[in-house]
Please model this.
Amino acid sequence: MAETTVLNVEGMHCQHCVKAVTDELTAVPGVSDVQVNLEAGNAVVVHEPDVARSTLIAAVDEAGFDAN
Model:
């Protein structure tokens, strides 16, 4: 059964930022859906239970942003 994790993402300013975060999170194995909200400053990630929160945070970091 899929799990949902909400990450607060700091530093996003435009749709290019949203796309960068979305692309990195979507590339994580086990992630099935990603919704990034620029106004709210967060990302809602649907993933398999074995995907660690730290893996998702690392993906956001790879995109050039901070997440928690």
